[in-house]
Amino acid sequence: QERVFSGVQPSGNLTLGNYLGAIRNWVGLQQDYESIFCVVDLHAITVWQEPEVLRNATREVAAGMIASGVDPKQSIIFNQSQVRQHAELAWIFNCVARLGWLNRMTQFKEKAGKNKERASVGLYVYPNLMAADILLYKATHVPVGEDQKQHLELTRDIAQKFNSDYGVEFFPDVEPLILGEATRVMSLRDGTNKMSKSDPSDMSRINLTDDRDTIAKKIRKARTDAEPLPETPDGLEGRPEAKNLITIFGALAGKSSAEVCSQYAGKGFADFKRDLADLSVDVLGPITEEMKRLTEEKTYVDSVLREGADKAAAIAEPILQEIHEIVGFLKP
Ligand code: ATP
Ligand code: MG
């Protein structure tokens, strides 16, 4: 049986990167797969979160998923901490994964920064918890942005090592689904950095909660170079900021980069940015409005998350029981 699992951290506002790289793709997948979508609050606390901010962000991220078209009637939507089995399986995987594997993870290196001694242990074992999120449901397909590819390879390694250590065919092969044109949306301030909801600069990203003027300002001020737009995508070589804006335009308009380039060939960025801002507002505006409506109605989102947690736990618990059996935990 095929099952989709994916998650987003409530570590800030949802960004255009989260939308184009992940959430938008979930909407289509939920038609064809049994789908489980998680607000991963256990992951979020691998870096400091103010408790009240975390609680609000959890509601807001869930509202963002629903406003984007993830349907709580079709898919399971819940927050991770409500399903205790995630943390428990993560512990077991801490004992399966090898230090050498985790030492190669680039996200840890980026997020820990220069002073690794001061990073939380949770940030280091983050990929083991992510493997637990997916394998707790024996999910087979995981729609994510390009940045999560390495963590998914680790998930496969953990599944395979567990299967071979215990001599079982228990966990399935997990397949990443990296879909669409904008699999790695870059920062508006630096075309070599990923757009992230936890970036200290709000000007680096477009949030799903931004209003029309804020979006227009952020795009107007987005870094570009002095050259006009090229005739073909070949002319974007060595121009990461220009390439990023054209990719975003294409993803929002449902056009290829080649089509966008030919539309704006030889023009300066001022016209292009004005159109990109209008296009962004057209696509994101209705989502922002719906998100606002849903978060103002607090009990609705909370009840979706509560029901989702019950449904998720009902799938997870029997699988975890089997894992206990395989590992050799005594149940008198
Ligand atoms: P943080 O900075 O706290 O890590 P984030 O913006 O990276 O936040 P996550 O919650 O870590 O968001 O990731 C949620 C999903 O969004 C993942 O599937 C991830 O691959 C995807 N994603 C995140 N950033 C981008 C981006 N810039 N472009 C495309 N996909 C992205
Ligand atoms: Mg991230």
UniProtKB/TrEMBL annotation:
Intervals of motif 'KMSKS' region: 194-198
E.C. numbers: 6.1.1.2
Binding annotation for ATP: 9-11, 17-18, 145-147, 185, 194-198
Catalytic activity: tRNA(Trp) + L-tryptophan + ATP = L-tryptophyl-tRNA(Trp) + AMP + diphosphate + H(+)
Protein role: Catalyzes the attachment of tryptophan to tRNA(Trp).
HAMAP family: Trp_tRNA_synth_B
Subunit text: Homodimer.
Full protein name: Tryptophan--tRNA ligase
Source organism of this protein record: Emcibacter nanhaiensis
